[in-house]
Amino acid sequence: MRLVGLRIVGGIGYLRRMSTRCGYCGAYVDKDKEAHIHDPKTCSACKRELPASQFPRWPSSADGRRHQCRDCIRGERGEQQVKRAEDRERSRQRRNEWFRKNGYTWVIHTPDGRYLTPLEAEHEQDQREQDAQGYDWEE
């Protein structure tokens, strides 16, 4: 019995596979020895044939490169950022709706130790602005 492509790691019984099968040609590749690169390589997302240098390094892959080109990865990251922003906004709205439904109100803690609702704080700010403009409250 021949154990090709297996290494004992961390003691007896822990085996790690060192070789993997290439998805393009089907050959077994030892990832620890050399990269098994097919040039040009086809992007799995956009299906374009590009030079291998257009694919970022990816150690777990048989050829040491990712299966998607740099352009597709950039586009995917942009989409993910937009999706995360939308998810955050939905979560914020749900949380605020829950607070309103359960009787919570937002308060502002002033430096002099008072608690004001946002409406009271806005009214107080308007009064300060009118005082600064010289509005006479006695009239």
Query: For the terminal residues, how far apart are their CA atoms?
Result: 104 Å
Mean pLDDT: 79
Order of helices and strands, N to C? EEEEEEHEEH
Regions with pLDDT < 50 over 5+ consecutive residues? 11-16
- Structural class, from helix and strand content? alpha+beta
What amount of the residues lies in strands?
A: 5-15%
Biggest β-sheet description: 2 strands, antiparallel
Helix % is: 25-40%
Strand order of the largest sheet: 1-2
Total helical segments: 2
Over all CA atoms, what is the radius of gyration? 31 Å
Characterize the overall form.
rod-shaped
**What's the quaternary structure here?**
single chain
Find the count of extended strands (DSSP E, 2+ residues): 8
Characterise the protein shown here.
By secondary structure, the chain is an alpha+beta fold. It has a domain of about 55 residues. The chain is built from 2 helices and 8 strands, in the order ββββββαββα. Strands 1-2 form a two-stranded antiparallel sheet. A hairpin with a 6-residue loop joins β5 and β6. The radius of gyration is 31 Å and the shape is rod-shaped. The termini are far apart. About 5% of the residues have low confidence.
